[in-house]
Amino acid sequence: MYPIITVTLNPAVDVSTSVQSLQPEKKLRCAAPRTEPGGGGINVARVLHRFGEKVLPVYFAGGCNGGLLTAQLTSAGMAVAPVGMLAETRENLHVSDISNGRQYRFVMPGPSVRMRRTSPC
């Protein structure tokens, strides 16, 4: 039994990179991207897990990003309870500007998840 269960309705794969200087309309050479699990409940579950708590994140997962999200959580030693969906789990982009130390966070919209009625009424 898990004493703490988190629920994340709109999880994400967070992709982080950096550039020397963020400039409009130019090709910007990025550092190698890093990915990690994201979304409010997922982040809470990861912190609790690091502190040694037994936690079970429940979250929607779909497509390649959903598989990556689940793989990253399980490789960190966490038990998981993904709820499958047909839509792709969203991806966010974080870009750090090395010249000024600022970070820009691009948060993508999540997919629409439709539930099927269980009764004809």
From TrEMBL:
Q: Which GO terms describe its molecular function?
A: kinase activity
Q: Which residues form the Carbohydrate kinase PfkB domain?
A: 14-110
Name the InterPro entries for this protein: Carboh/pur_kinase_PfkB_CS, PfkB_dom, Ribokinase-like
PROSITE patterns given in the database record: PFKB_KINASES_1
Superkingdom, according to UniProt?
Answer: Bacteria
Does Transmembrane helix appear among the keywords? no
Has UniProt tagged this entry with the keyword RNA-binding?
no
Q: Which UniProt keywords apply?
A: Kinase, Transferase
Q: What is this protein called?
A: PfkB family carbohydrate kinase
Species per Swiss-Prot/TrEMBL record: Chitinophaga caseinilytica
